[in-house]
Amino acid sequence: KCPHRGVELSKGQVIHGRIQCPFHGFEYDVSGRGVLIPANGRHAPVPRAFRAHSYPTYE
Hints:
Blueprint: E1 13-15, E2 18-20, E3 27-28, E4 34-36
Antiparallel strand pairs: 1-2, 2-3, 3-4
């Protein structure tokens, strides 16, 4: 779930190898680290505490 509003990230899209939250568009890398908050701008820092839980997956 997105730590911002609790939206299920499984409902989001994968964009450039990152999962995008369907609610506000926040993006997370494969480790769950927040890498983009669109409203803050592409080059704005993302707080380190802004993380989603990540789980290994296999195809």
